[in-house]
Design brief:
Structural class: alpha/beta
InterPro entries: DAP_DH_C, NAD(P)-bd_dom_sf
Largest sheet: 6 strands, parallel
Distance between the termini: 21 Å
Organism: Nocardioides marmoribigeumensis
Protein name: 2,4-diaminopentanoate dehydrogenase C-terminal domain-containing protein
Domain 2,4-diaminopentanoate dehydrogenase C-terminal: 144-349
CATH topology of the largest domain: Dihydrodipicolinate Reductase, domain 2
Shape: globular
Strand content: 25-35%
Number of strands: 14
CATH architecture of the largest domain: 2-Layer Sandwich
Number of domains: 2
Length: 357
Amino acid sequence: MTLRVVEWSTGTVGKHAIAGILAHPDLELVGVWVSSEEKHGKDVGELCGGEPIGLTATMHKDELVALRPDVVVHTAMTDADPFAALTLFEELLAAGIDVVSSGPVFLQWPHGVIPDEMVQGLQDAGERGGASLHVNGIDPGFANDVLPLVMTSLSQRIDQVRCYEIADYSTYYQPFVNQTLYGFGKPMDEVPPLFSGGILTMAWGSVVRIIAAGLDLTLDEPLEEQVEFAEAERDYSTVSGEVPAGTRCAVRFQVVGKVDGVPRVALEHVTRTHPEQRPDWPQPATGDGCYRVEITGEPMMTLDFSHHGEDGDHNVSGMIVTAMRLVNAVGAVVDAPPGLVTALDLPLVTGRGLVSR
């Protein structure tokens, strides 16, 4: 059965989701939402930098709901106002439309991260409409839920599970993320929003908590946050803006879950705006970035997962893998019980139908 899909955005992740939907034999793209008058009424193919496909985008939500799609693939930016996304999801779910989304990232595993009443609101809306919601991607997402949990199936004893993103963000075009959230290019004494008390736990606590849930651990509360910044020794240029000497150029942070005071699950990010910065911090196995899973215990296991686009850039491929984790999960999410669905609830998701012909 072909599933009718609406894509929610044509941005850095959305355009790759659209390409993935169009290429998928089980999916039909029937509508696309855009955020501005400038894009409204334009051909979707042209908005994504390609040839016209005969489908025009709209910024009118009601038009897309009226199409009665099976599912919305939502890739719009939610970092600036994550709770507005919850309101939209409740409306779509209540209308009987399944949703797969790249954010807000705390919905990867919201239990213990956001108030219970917010989680229940999504659950109730899904049950009213008979629809499911799944939020995932690559990080938070596959690189730190499915991947590490599958690896633990090889363990005889587990002492700690640690998931890393080690990346150079110089070619990652997200000015809001780089400049505002991370504070790259900003004064060292200016605290970016992401590193205000408790925000890291909201953003990446879901990673620690879903791994803990998969391992049947009860974590100490609250989770522990650790942050270290690096100062630029020279001027740098990135696609998201300038990073002058003397400003913040890199960050290393951790969100740690302990059991009886002992670290058992950790999420660690090492984010640079040039590969030369802080050579003493963890380095990618190859190229400019990787995801790493370290499991200490018996046996000791380390897996480095790297990716890059056909042009060699890892930030472009980061957008592709985020989009395709969602697109390829559509069928499983549509088949799932109503309400919030996490990676622990889904069957094996594969790239079925995507082998080149």
